[in-house]
Known about the structure:
Helix content is 64%, strand content 9%. By secondary structure, it is mostly helical. It has a two-stranded antiparallel ribbon. A hairpin with a 2-residue loop joins strand 1 and strand 2. It is elongated, with a radius of gyration of 22 Å.
Amino acid sequence: MAESLDRLRSLVEDELGECCDADVEARLDELDDLEAGTDAGQVSERVEVFSALANDTRYRIVQLLAAAESDLCVCELTPMLDVSDSAISHALSSLTDAGLVARRKEGKWRYYEATDRAERLLAAVEPEESV
């Protein structure tokens, strides 16, 4: 990463003055701060979240759980989705690992609900209403 930062510093020092009247040192400090704010671990975790939603079945499950008034079990999700119980269980496991679904166990049954994180993501991708 230091090598890419050195290349960036060289480029900015050489060319920034040509494209605009900017304080080169201030701009370099801003770019250093920007790079420091992108932690590779956080990026990986966030990509996992988006990957979990990047499948029709998993996305639909999150939508259903977010819209439900109470927790749902796999047997309740199956009639609403055109996939097997095992596919739903696998999808729920991925969604749980990504922090988008919470699971609780009652006897031999497991019940699922959408997390606040999932609901915020769904709200963020909803199309804006036309005026």
